[in-house]
Amino acid sequence: MARPRKTVQDHTFLAAALEGLELQKQRIDEQIRQVRAMLGRRGPALAAAGAPAATEKRARKRMLSSAARERIAAAQKKRWAEFRKGKKKAESS
Questions:
Q1: Which domain holds residue 24?
Q2: Residue 33 domain-assigned?
Q3: Does residue 58 lie within any of the structural domains?
Q4: What is the pLDDT of residue 57?
Q5: Burial call 40-52: b when 16+ CB within 10 Å, e when fewer
Q6: N or C: which end of the chain has fewer CB within 10 A?
Q7: How confident is the model over 4-35, as pLDDT tens digits?
Q8: Domains contained in the chain, number
């Protein structure tokens, strides 16, 4: 004898699961919006809700000369050398 199907229970179970998943999706979308706001980025919903005009100029990235990059690299190498020297003295003591 064939088993009767429980489509009514399966349907209500799936509907409840779908509702729960949609609630989770809404919470996650809200958290994503909050993180983007903290980062200063605007999502599509926030941009339409009152974002400044797209014609505003964005800040340009600062360009360093090769001489400036070399000075920064030399200073960083000096700091690391001092750090390693201090670390060796601490280990030998």
A1: 10-41
A2: yes
A3: no
A4: 73
A5: eebeeeeeeeeee
A6: N
A7: 666 667 888 888 999 999 999 999 999 999 99
A8: 2
Cα 32 to Cα 80: distance, rounded to the nearest angstrom = 38
How many angstroms separate the Cα of 81 from the Cα of each of 8, 73, 90? 73, 12, 14
Structure tokens at 30: 């809200």
Q: How far is Cα 2 from Cα 54, in angstroms, rounded to an integer?
A: 65
For 56, which DSSP code?
A: S
The pLDDT, as a whole number, for residue 70 is: 97
Helices and strands: H and E segment counts in the chain: 3, 0
Overall residue count recorded for the chain in this entry? 93
Residue 50 covered by a domain: no
Whether 4 is in a domain gets the answer no
**Per-residue pLDDT, 3:** 66
Average of pLDDT values for 48-62? 66
Identity of the residue numbered 32: I
Distance CA 15, CA 32 (A): 26
H or E element at residue 74 = helix 66-92
